[in-house]
Amino acid sequence: MIVLRNVWKTRGGREVLRDVSFHIAPLESVGIIGLNGAGKTTLLDTITGMLKPDGGFIRINGQERVLGNTGLCRDLVYISGARPQLWEELKVRASFAHCVEMYRVDRRIAESRLAGLVQAFLIGPFLERTPGSLSLGERMRCELAYAFLAAPPIILLDEVTLGLDVSIRDRVLRYLEEYKRQSRSTLLYTSNRLSEVEGLCGRVLMMDAGSIIFDGSVRDMLERVSPLGRMEARVSPAIPDFEDLPLERYCVDGEQITLTYDKRKLDTAQLLRYLMARCEIKDVRLSEPDLEEAVRIIYGGGQGWKQ
After folding, report:
1. pTM for the structure as a whole
2. Residues ≥6 apart with Cβ < 8 Å to 40
3. In what helix (H) or strand (E) does residue 199 lie, and over which residues does it extend?
């Protein structure tokens, strides 16, 4: 459990965190999004004790101090390009051995877990090399393996797909999705690739200038930004009667129909069931904003968004 209350932090005369408050339950997956400089990494640094807040308090599993608290340190791992976990002077395999010892992972469990991570992240050729000899992407794959080798109750990942090529990034994301499905740990995840956040996290914290401007599900964000849905379908043998439905508008052109509806009044699944009960659907296409579009609307001050 992670609790922040009225946390603020100033660096270089500028407020980098402003009155930040939220609660994260055990096993929850939370994405932290925002423009560069919004405060995402600073927030994670502060949660993990890398930075000390100037005000407010942070509690993790009921305890307020992370650094120096060995038991609490074993309850979390923080992976960030700016905060490497691997030891520079040691080979990667030796850093993994240190991880196993520090987090008190059973040796047999660690061996099995590492074998799976080597296969998942394709890091076998890097185990006998030092981090300094690896590229950014190669190193980040090893850093990720370090996190999931430890597999503590809380995992914080900051822009961990930077430097990964497309095929490796897909492997990493599949691993993270499976890890999330098994609900092994609480996950905090930052990325500028919003599709990653949308796929991994059930909840989103959106930051701007050090403040949380949205806290909720991706679905809630999309509905607040754009509550209208649009469905285009080709149907036969006849066009059904839409007068009983709370549609915003509809258009009929031969077999082609275009329906615009308020998702707060009419669920997409309900509309599909209505059509399927009255006609044959030959083709259907739904047009709804994704998370990336929603963020553009919010930062652009688009219609329909209110903090």
Report:
1. 0.77
2. 32, 33, 34, 158, 190, 207
3. helix 194-200
Q: Both 125 and 45 in a single domain? A: yes
Number of structural domains found in the chain: 2
237: preceding bond cis by omega (within 30 degrees): yes
CA pair distance 23, 3, nearest whole angstrom: 5
Which of 139, 196, 126, 190 has the alpha carbon at shortest distance from 166? 196
Tell me what the pLDDT averaged over the chain comes to.
88
Closest among 16, 63, 19, 62 to 37, alpha carbons compared: 16
CATH code of the domain in which 135 resides: 3.40.50.300
Structural domain range at position 113: 2-221
CATH number of the structural domain spanning residue 245:
3.30.70
Do 129 and 250 lie in one domain? The reply is no
206 in the same domain as 79: yes
Q: What is the pLDDT of residues 276-298, one digit of tens each?
A: 999 999 999 987 666 777 777 77
| pLDDT tens-place string over residues 233-289 | 999 888 888 888 999 889 999 899 999 888 888 888 899 999 999 999 999 998 766
